[in-house]
Amino acid sequence: xxxxxxxxxxxxDTCFVCGRSNPSGxxxxxxxxxxxxxxxxxxxxxYQGWHGIAHGGIVATLLDELMAWxxxxxxxxxxxxxxxxxxxxxxxxxxxxxxxxxxxxxxGRLVLAASRLTDPAGxxxxxxxxxxxxxxxxx
Length: 139
Known about the structure:
10% of the residues lie in helices and 41% in strands. It has a single domain, classed as Hotdog Thioesterase (Thiol Ester Dehydrase, Chain A), CATH 3.10.129. It is mainly β. The chain contains 1 helix and 6 strands; from the N terminus they run ββαββββ. β4 (96-107) and β5 (110-118) form a beta hairpin. It has one helix at residues 56-69; strands spanning 31-33, 36-42, 76-87, 96-107, 110-118, 124-137. The chain is globular. A 6-stranded antiparallel β-sheet has the order 1-2-4-5-6-3.
């Protein structure tokens, strides 16, 4: 952190969730657009908690990433300040899931966002709401 308390966020493609240069990461194929963020993904089995079920920390991580990526087309970077997760159904490993994230409001430096994971039938598996801080403008 610099003396002005602004984070110096550097994208070196090493993010645990979306980074392509992180061999230990999820390498999530997430896409940002004007509607927010979305992905289609199969969680690898080595991220399970109970047999066949994704670990809750991984589920929360995916939901967090969706909210963060929903701000990508806005011209600033964010970090999560607060997040609430609702686990509705077990999230499977080894099977396709869908993720969606979107902004619900902006209040100065604060961005309110939401995200959800669904199965191919559209059943909501998990969902989250969060508050993200704008920490830097992109140049």
